[in-house]
Write a structure and sequence with these properties.
Distance between the termini: 20 Å
Shape: elongated
Number of domains: 2
Low-confidence stretches: none
Strand order of the largest sheet: 6-10-11-20-19-18-15-14
Length: 499
Amino acid sequence: MGNENQQQDVHELLKIRREKLAELKACGQDPYQITTFDQTAHASEIRERFEEFEGKTVRIAGRLMSKRIMGKASFCNVKDLSGGIQCYVSRDDLGEEAYQGFKKMDIGDNVGLEGFVFKTKTGETTVHARSITLLTKALQILPEKYHGMTDTDLRYRQRYVDLFMNDEARDVLVKRSKILSEIRAFLSSRGFMEVETPILVSNAGGAAARPFLTHFNALDQDMKLRISLELYLKRLIVGGLEKVYEIGRVFRNEGVDTRHNPEFTLLELYQAYTDYNGMMRLTEDLFRTVSEKVLGTTKIKYNGVEIDFGKPFEKITMIEAVRKYAGVDFDEIRDLEGAREAAKAHHIEYEERHKWGDIVNLFFEAYCEEKMVQPTFVCDHPLDISPLTKKKPSDPRLVERFELFINGAEMCNAYSELNDPDDQRERFKAQEAALAAGDQEANTTDEEIHRALEYGMPPTGGIGYGIDRFVMLLTGATAIRDVLLFPTMKSLKAPQEQN
């Protein structure tokens, strides 16, 4: 019964807001007809630089978050992008009609306010209003008034509400923008060119992932959403663009958890005349520089653990890591039969199609990943799981590849890029066989990249960074949805479908 009464109360309050809007329109004061407001300052700069603003006139704009009516004078709080600030509003300053209009404003309305800056007796920085204008009428009630904005599902679905109700959520997403800006500045300072490549592709390659499928009606052609940026960027290296990068959305038809969303932001860059060692040096510099620029320090705390980007990153091969943490030496176990026996002995489940290198990787995932807390380059992966990477001259079972792990999570993946067209052809054949054997994440042959390699791609280092995980790390977020403006959510049924 209490819940039913609450719903009736909400319905009545919504009705009152509609009536207020109708009254305003009838008086020729339609707030939706206001087109501009000359905002001269934000709340945070007024608070932080009070000495500069004291006694001066400012024009602020934002959402009315609270209101305390005290007869002829009132206090309210106006919140903009930078935060909230107290405002003093009186009948003597505004006049009777305008003051009554202010009293009728609702929490959540957008307002513009002009006044001078002072401090109250209690020392709170305040704007003394000379005028206040209703810029937009809010017809919905702020969610915290009844059920709060603590429901995470509701927060993600109504991110527009979450942003003005939840300072922490807004700060994370603002910081994301700063991180992207600093990444671009870092790469630009090193001579990289930002480019854009197709999202809708006929062959979704460059990663082990299931693509989303669609159909292009105009050409009557099946298409896919890209799963990586790699294959087009490599063509640009062939074309003579020596340093290129792209920051863009990629799409993988996989599960959703705290680290995975079906669409996410990837940074991939390629540099001619270097290898995966060059990519390691670049990565250390990137993490160190962006952390310093955005946070003012190279030391961060994540899940209670201090991580220091200022120190040289650790380095270990995948085989060394498995030997260290699982006690299994794949330098000694060099054939598939031995690998399978080791897997059985350690209760590692594998599939019939899995090769020696796949089993090495299964061991790494089971025993090693979570141990990589401080920044660690895990190097020299098996050839079997790296179809686009150069072999190590000293051991053809392995390739020149690394993944950076921090706090048990993979942060990036880098190669000395394979530029031998005949070798690439054989790798594609192996991937086609894996696909036929049931590996839905296997690559298919890309004739265009093969043709490009035949024109000659110089020695090249390439790397892909998961931007969302990087943002999670620098903001302390524990779920990828917290760093996405609009994470993928299951569609809700319309009300009539739910009945």
